[in-house]
Amino acid sequence: AQSVTQLGSHVSVSEGALVLLRCNYSSSVPPYLFWYVQYPNQGLQLLLKYTSAATLVKGINGFEAEFKKSETSFHLTKPSAHMSDAAEYFCAVSGNTGFQKLVFGTGTRLLVSP
Amino acid sequence: GAVVSQHPSRVICKSGTSVKIECRSLDFQATTMFWYRQFPKQSLMLMATSNEGSKATYEQGVEKDKFLINHASLTLSTLTVTSAHPEDSSFYICSAQSGDGYTFGSGTRLTVV
């Protein structure tokens, strides 16, 4: 069984500040991990994914995440927040053999203030 | 990159009627399509997995007779909400395997009145 826990349903930052969105996973097999962003009334856009290669993964729009097996974490960071980063962010996990269904966390809403 | 076109984006229907949502993969073949449901301010819950040419696999608690899924071709999967009721109002999103990842449709906001 797999699951992800996203700590904090809401995170507020000021424009230009560091963004840190937390994700911890549980998986009985080596996982693949994903971060997605969702804007209101839209589908999900992939930010980045970990598929057992480099533990530090760089994604689009300046985001990156580090896979830490010892901490079962895959936190998402961005050095400097932009107003356009305000959205809902979902962490997801799947198995690592072929394509398997994604299990999503409950999401974190990022609020960016001027 | 891979694109999944989902229609309609919004639909309002009367209670008791049926609604069909379509997801088409553009420029790639989607052997497997996933259908999710998202309640307001909540996460995505997988409803079913459909494979081209075979019956869909439904998650526990999802009524297969109410949420009919058809995946008759490698580029089209449909979800039909039959005899819709207000509690079926939700945001429905499809996702297809593409390359080494998943591509999501833009979602359908269903409101049953």
SS class of chain B:
mainly beta
Taken in chain order, the helices and strands of chain A follow as: EEEEEEEEEEEE
Rounded to an integer, what's the Rg of chain A over CA atoms? 13 Å
List low-confidence stretches of chain A. Answer: none
| Amount of beta strand of chain A | over 45%
Inertia-based shape of chain A: globular
Alpha-carbon distance between the two ends of chain A: 41 Å
Largest sheet: number of strands, sense, barrel closure of chain B: 7 strands, mixed
Q: What's the shape of chain B?
A: globular
Helix content of chain A: under 10%
* Strand content range of chain B: over 45%
**Total number of beta strands of chain A:** 12
Tell me the helix content of chain B.
under 10%
Write the topology of this structure.
The complex is a heterodimer of chains A (114) and B (113).
Chain A: E1 2-5, E2 10-14, E3 19-21, E4 24-27, E5 32-38, E6 44-50, E7 56-58, E8 64-68, E9 73-78, E10 87-94, E11 103-104, E12 108-113
Parallel strand pairs in A: 2-12
Antiparallel strand pairs in A: 1-4, 3-9, 5-6, 5-10, 7-8, 8-9, 10-11, 10-12
Chain B: E1 3-7, E2 10-13, E3 19-26, E4 32-38, E5 44-51, E6 57-58, E7 67-73, E8 76-81, E9 90-98, E10 101-104, E11 108-112
Parallel strand pairs in B: 2-11
Antiparallel strand pairs in B: 1-3, 3-8, 4-5, 4-9, 5-6, 7-8, 9-10, 9-11
Give me some keywords for this one.
heterodimer; A: 114 residues; mainly beta; B: 113 residues; 7-stranded mixed beta sheet; 4-stranded antiparallel beta sheet; 58% strand
Protein described:
The complex is a heterodimer of chains A (114) and B (113). By secondary structure, chain A is mainly beta. Helices cover 0% and strands 53% of the residues of chain A. Chain A contains no helices and 12 strands. In chain A, strands 2, 5, 6, 10, 11 and 12 form a 6-stranded mixed sheet that branches. A 4-stranded antiparallel sheet of chain A has the order 3-9-8-7, with no helix packed on it. A two-stranded antiparallel sheet of chain A has the order 1-4. In chain A, strand 8 and strand 9 form a beta hairpin. The termini of chain A are far apart. Chain B is an all-beta fold. Chain B has strands spanning 3-7, 10-13, 19-26, 32-38, 44-51, 57-58, 67-73, 76-81, 90-98, 101-104, 108-112. In chain B, the strands form 2 sheets. In chain B, strands 2, 4, 5, 6, 9, 10 and 11 form a 7-stranded mixed sheet that branches. Chain B has a 4-stranded antiparallel sheet with strand order 1-3-8-7, with no helix packed on it. In chain B, strand 4 and strand 5 form a beta hairpin.
